[in-house]
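pasting for the record
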Amino acid sequence: QGLDVRRERLTQAERTWTNLSAARATLAGVARDSDRVETARSSAEQGLTEARANAPTLEAAMTQAERSLAAAELACAADVEQLRANLEDDAPCPVCGAHEHPYAHQAAPLKNMLTSLRAEVDGCRLRVRDNNALQAQHAAAASAAHERLAALAHDRLTLSERVASLEQAWHADPLAVAAPPADERTDWFVAQHSALRDAVDALVRQEQLWR
């Protein structure tokens, strides 16, 4: 009966210690996940802040490029082209009255400038779109990180309560006093179970001899 009682106590103590070790390991893992997600959240929010700060400059550049393109397209419009073709040297311009017409025979440079301005507008629009996409990406990442941190905080609280409960149960167990340091307890339980089996076997042999 004494050996049976000790086996039950040993089994219960081992179960408590195993559950406590597992809960501590899980809690440590949740803490590491929280740190990792917090780093990701901070990075996403910083990226979002930077992207939002860059947005006004990019949009202003796009607006200016579009205005320059519109002005260039107006200068290259068909009626303007016709007006330019009708200009005569030393004759007054019907629009401004000037006698000099520096752009009368410079259609090619204007066409090149128009092409360059269109490319600049396309580039500005692309940069604005990329920035908007980057903002959306960082915002989604930050939102996901916030949700994950909330879930991890809940898990952390639950695990902390479980660890506290198991620690209380472990320290209340009489075998905890005799148990070695934490890193040796698994082997200690194995040795205790082995010694208990040896004691039971010895008792059985003694009973057989008595019989």
